[in-house]
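2024-03-11 09:14:02 INFO receiving multi-entity request
2024-03-11 09:14:02 INFO entity count = two
2024-03-11 09:14:03 INFO echoing inputs for audit
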Amino acid sequence: MTASTTENPWEGGRGKREGKPTSSILLATTAEDHHVARMAALALGLSVLEAAIPSPLPGVKPGLANIVTLIVLARYGWRTAAWVSVLRVVAGSLLLGNFLAPGFFLSLSGAVFSLAVLAVSQHLPQRWFGPVTHSIFAAFAHIAGQLLLVYFWLIPHVGLLYLVPIFAAAALVFGTVNGLIAAHYLNEPQVTVARPTFGSISSDLK
Amino acid sequence: MNGLPMAQIKPGDWLTLLAGALLTAFLVFTLWQGGAADKAVIRSGGKIFREAPLSRDQIIEVPGPLGISRIAIHNRQARIAADPSPRQYCVRQGWLKQAGEISICLPNQVSVELSGKRKNYDSLNY
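2024-03-11 09:21:47 INFO inference complete, emitting structure
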């Protein structure tokens, strides 16, 4: 992505009328940028959807947005997955209104730990290990990252250990389920649907 | 559609699933074994009033600024059976079963805490 100051072609007419060229900032984006943005938007939708689901314990969430991360990881590699994941965390916090609040840093630390583990686990032989494995690893890493941050920043009390088994069980269950969903989509034959408008977001999954 | 979701799982995935389950079970067993409690530490006004073994059923009367709190030990459990505090929070807390559980009557400055072998001692007195 490169930012460049150019004449905005869309507003050229009005600018010329004033006798001065209108200057604005245009971001020169590549097709990959658009792709990352679409996938992040899809993940974002899942995050917002999930925020509406009541949770028995703060922090226990299905993490549906990670399905998108897993699919992107398998299809386009770790770098793209990292972009999608971090964009989703930042944009999601803006939408949900907790940007730079503790919840944001918890999401971020979870995402960073997951990505770190995925960077390693993606090199496991594909013949034996699929998205379910990556998902479980990422889920445990996610919860580990969050608990470490909670312990060292928010609640430095050993009583936190009491909750660890609950989080671990949640990671196991939701990690497996998300991995199965991701595997399900990845096993479908790749169909390129060329729908230019609203459909293009959902068609990326196919 | 690829039929049953089980078809998506590769052999290594089962291994990961098993490892995850074992890790979770390990965490449950290590972190949720608060240890069987073996004694009740009764405090009054911040000082240890008495340490009573849970093995013997008894009722202990503890004096506080408001009056007498009665602590009952029964069947390896302990509770505050009666207390002069106005809101009775500690009485309503009911039976304490595991090491680390504590019941506190702030107005009468009386507390009962169960402790087990795994609890670290700050000091030992004889």
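2024-03-11 09:21:48 INFO post-check: The interface with chain A takes residues 1-2, 5, 7-13, 15-17, 20-21, 23-24, 27-28, 31-32 of chain B (CB under 8 Å).
2024-03-11 09:21:48 INFO post-check: Residues 11-31 of chain B form the longest helix (21 residues).
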